[in-house]
Amino acid sequence: MVDPSWYMTLAAVLFVIGALGMLSRRNALVMFMCIELMLNAVNLTLISAGRAMNDLNGQVATFFILVVAAAEVVVGLAIIVAIFRRRSTASVDELNEMSG
Amino acid sequence: MVETIIFVLMGLAAIAGAITVVMARNPVYSAIGLLGTLFAVAVLYVLQLAHFVAAVQVIVYAGAVLTLFLFVIMLIGVDKEENREENLRFQRPVVGVLAGVIVVMAAALTAFGDFDWVPASGAVIPEVTNGTIQAVAEPLFTDWVLAFEATALLLTIAAAGAIALAHYRRRESTDG
After folding, report:
1. Distance from B176 to chain A by nearest Cα, in Å?
2. Chain A CB contacts of B69 below 8 Å
3. Highest mean pLDDT: which of A9-18, B32-41, B67-76?
4. Which of A37, B43, B141, B154 lies deepest, with the highest CB count within 10 Å?
5. Would you say the C-alpha torsion B65, B53, A68, A43 has a positive or negative sign?
6. Residues A34-61: what's their mean pLDDT?
7. Which of A26, A31, A48, A77 to mutate to test the interface with B (most CBs of B within 10 A)?
8. Is A100 a member of any domain?
9. Residue B160 pLDDT
10. What is the CATH number of the domain that holds A9?
11. Which pLDDT belongs to residue B44?
12. Domain of A14?
């Protein structure tokens, strides 16, 4: 059996890559994908912790995160499409006004 | 031994996909990279006996979420150049330094950290049933039933909100 800390390390690496992309990219869609990447890294952490502790609640928590992520994607992409229809851009740098 | 080989292969695939997501100029490549990462992570779930969650991961993420992403990318247009002009000049170097610090910390934790995995429940879950639908459903519908109902409500609200946003029009255009 692979030691759980290796799964944790992989999850940490994935999370860091996602956070890095989140901070360095300007395209709202790609930033959204980076959020999904980070959520997946956390899911992997929960699963491997649950496996290591022989507890199914890690998998249940992962299940909930999956549902919340799906809801978040639906609303977020709808917002991006709404912004794009108004401004014809998906770049977060150009969205620097609070007024519509 | 088999687990180690699959872990290394899938770990590398997940990291490669994640790097593709971040580095690719074209958002479609980013989406495909995300797809690779999601599948690799699903295999890692199976490796840890989380069969049901792995299936849900493939169906929900790789099936629904990725399709939605690709749909929106096509809707918005992929050929638009990303604006390379820097508004916050110090941001990217800071990001690089921050990422280095986090990687070093994670590596140090893995190398020197003394993880002590304590079983939460006294009863040992048999490996065969660990992660099947029945095994996951039991805590889901007993201990977590309130959270389960809350997510049902959340999904309804999210669907309604998405439809409301999609139907949103400026007042002037509806009047005219």
Report:
1. 17
2. 29, 32-33, 73, 77
3. B32-41
4. A37
5. negative
6. 90
7. A77
8. no
9. 92
10. 1.10.287.3510
11. 94
12. 4-89
Q: CA A63 to CA A15: how far, in whole Å?
A: 18
**What's the total number of domains in chain A?**
1
* Span B46-58, pLDDT tens digits: 998 889 999 999 9
Question: What CA–CA distances, in Å, run from B29 to A34, A93, B23, B73, B78?
Answer: 13, 22, 9, 11, 10
**CA distances in angstroms from A30 to A21, A71, B21, B94, B101, listed in the order given:** 8, 18, 7, 20, 24
Intra-chain end-to-end CA distance of chain A, in Å: 55
CA distance A14 to A44: 10
Q: Does A25 touch chain B (CB under 8 A)?
A: yes
Distance CA B41, CA B33 (A): 12
Q: Which two tokens stand for residue A10?
A: 């992989």
Whether residue A12 lies inside any domain: the answer is yes
Q: What is the pLDDT of residues B72-112, one digit of tens each?
A: 988 887 666 666 666 677 877 888 888 788 778 877 877 77
Mean pLDDT value of segment A17-32? 88
Query: What pLDDT does residue A88 have?
Result: 77
Confidence of residue B122 (pLDDT cuts 50, 70, 90): low
Q: Is position A95 within any domain?
A: no
Helix then strand then coil, % of chain A, to nearest 5: 80, 0, 20
Which among B110, B138, B144 has CB closest to A9? Answer: B110
Query: ipTM value of the model?
Result: 0.91
